[in-house]
Design a protein that fits this description.
Blueprint: H1 3-25, H2 28-47, H3 51-58, E1 78-81, E2 88-91, H4 97-106, H5 108-113
Antiparallel strand pairs: 1-2
Length: 117
């Protein structure tokens, strides 16, 4: 895109944004919200409160504290025994090198049948 085309595009977008801004400035509901915000801020300053205090007063069930961290439960240990070689593998995931080789050689369904209970 040429510099002139880029400039014209930016200019067009700026005009659209200015028109939107002017429309919002004349919106009565925006004026009411701004007035409410200013009055609420003045009231909070007067009483030495912050937004969290106000929310806790108005809606005590809403907690402003972060949710507790939920830990994933550890994976269950699986033990596979190859009936052909007698080799035993203990793993918590499916990313075990020998287990992958077995699944490729004998098939995943067959290897899963080797799972010890």
């Amino acid at each position: 895109m040429s510099k002139l085309a880029e400039f014209r595009e930016a200019e067009r977008k700026l005009k659209e944004q200015l028109a939107l801004l002017e429309k919002l400035k004349n919106d009565s509901s925006l004026k009411k919200e701004l007035e409410f915000k200013d009055q609420l801020q003045a009231l909070m300053d007067q009483y030495g409160m912050n937004l969290r205090n106000v929310i806790n007063i108005l809606d005590p069930q809403t907690t402003s504290e972060p949710a507790p961290i939920q830990h994933r439960r550890s994976r269950q240990l699986k033990v596979y025994k190859n009936p052909n070689s007698g080799e035993v593998i203990e793993t918590k995931g499916g990313n075990h090198k020998t287990l992958k080789a077995w699944k490729q050689q004998f098939g995943a369904e067959t290897v899963e049948s080797w799972l010890q209970k």
